[in-house]
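Hi P.,

Sorry for the delay on this. The queue was packed all week, but I finally got your sequence through. Input first:
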Amino acid sequence: MERNAQILKTSVIGIVVNALLAGFKALIGFISGSIAIVLDAVNNLSDAASSLITIIGTKLASKRPDKKHPFGYGRIEYLSAMIIAIIIMYAGITSLIESIKKIINPQVPEYNLISIIIIGTAVFAKFFLGRYVKKVGKKVNSSSLINSGQDALLDSIISLSTFVAAIVFMLFKVSLEAYLALIISVIIIKSSIEMLIETVSQILGEKADPELAKSIKATVRSFKDVNGAYDLVLNNYGPDSFNGSIHIEIPDTYTATDLDKLARQITEKVYAEYNIYLTAIGIYSQNTKKDNAALIRDKISSAILKIEHVVQMHGFYIDEELKTIRFDVVISFDSKDCKAVFDKVYETVKSLYPDYEIQLTMDMEY
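Then the structure:
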């Protein structure tokens, strides 16, 4: 709730500041006949709309899970961030079109001291507003706020260029604002595309943060008899909202009761420390009865890790009764043909231990 309160507070501040700036700039723009100032005012209105969308998105994202969406509505924040990026892109395209029109059919603007003061004030207001909104966005992990803050910083550059154009015109009677507006429009469009790509990537599902994954695995391995933690998968259902699964390697002497107790303890600790719920904990058994199992594992590991794109081997187990060797092999996403790499691993192991049935599972770098 504290996170939502911070987002709402920051968004309301953004709406108020942008509405005031838009009103002043629109008035000065129409009086002076400056297309750059009018477009700047339009940008402020788009910022206010962005803040409003952030508020709506945050409210909807905080809805409790239900039958239809058992993992909650957190991903709505990514959708609101996408809408903001599209609004910014629209503003940039509109500015680009108007700038080209003014270059083809130029108009002579009229500036005065009051308009210069207002534009100068807007530069500082948008710069500090942008830094504040972006800082809060990073603090609370809100893509919508980060995008809004970035937009405000871009607008401060727009206002600064308008300010410079006004000074140049007053001193030398040379109008540069249409050309400056053209350059800034391209920058805005480029920035909006980058925002859109990043947001779409989040919606599609990105790889877990390496440091977070490393820390979670270390926590899991801290439990007695857990000799390895692998295949951590984290599903993102909104900022700071994850659930996932993991495999643990434990001695093959564990009973079902022991496993149940250990799995519950791990689940509780991971949730308490990271606010991440592990929906499943898979088991890899570790040989305790075959004396040379470790030597065989090391021999196989040494052989297959020499194969290009093989990253790791885990979940190794030898079953002498069934004459099987089973393990998982992790293949890098850099491989253009994972199946070919997998087949090569199989052939390598089979050539070393032809009397055993080789049971391989292909893993990727989740």
